[in-house]
């Protein structure tokens, strides 16, 4: 299929090393506009995008994430779930009830999904300009500190970051699970043996990728990665933090 948009999406690679070439304000503005045009539940637009230009804050966020490229990039976005905006023009007679309803898990999901959809639009827009991007979930290593650095009010939480810049590396495209493992029609797949077969196939594909890639080659499989990561606790403070901000309390 000769379609530039599809080609951009299918050629996505996470970029973790950037040149010193700056990104213009016009580019940033266009990327944010593209993010805003993402689908949004009930027209809520329940997110905020914070651009980090202060080198001191960038440095702090880099230390939290443990990633040098959080500091060294063309621009850094932080995507936040935001329900606080709904309270700003609310009549006092409704505020207490609305505040109570915002604590519902459904609204937490809506804000998280809205922010994620906006972020993916931003990613595609940036890549269409020849820029590289990388999502930064490791900001949640100390989510309360990120909250403090960004002066976030109640009902606003930082979900993830995104580095953007001109690539200074050309990594190989990382393979994905077979389409049969993630797509089915009319029902969730009922044949676990068949799914396991697709996972076995993917382990072989990914193993070959890791052994043959240009940088950081190693012997590994998708299943082994999952075992290592999921067999130990991770960011156990996040649940308490999220609830302290008013989210997901009922």
UniProtKB/TrEMBL annotation:
What general EC class does the enzyme of this chain belong to?
Answer: oxidoreductase
Q: Which CDD domains match?
A: NfsA-like (cd02146)
Pfam families per the record? Nitroreductase
InterPro entries reported in the protein's UniProt record: Flavin_OxRdtase_Frp, Nitroreductase, Nitroreductase-like
Question: Mind telling me which Gene3D superfamilies this protein's record contains?
Answer: NADH Oxidase
Q: Iron-sulfur among the record's keywords?
A: no
Q: Which SUPFAM superfamilies does this one have?
A: FMN-dependent nitroreductase-like
**Protein EC:** 1.5.1.38
The species this protein was found in: Salirhabdus euzebyi
- Superkingdom in the source lineage: Bacteria
- Select a single GO molecular function from the record's annotations and give it: FMN reductase (NADPH) activity
Which family, according to UniProt?
Belongs to the flavin oxidoreductase frp family.
Q: Could you tell me what this protein is called?
A: FMN reductase (NADPH)
Residue stretches making up the Nitroreductase domain? 10-166
Q: Which UniProt keywords apply?
A: Flavoprotein, FMN, NADP, Oxidoreductase
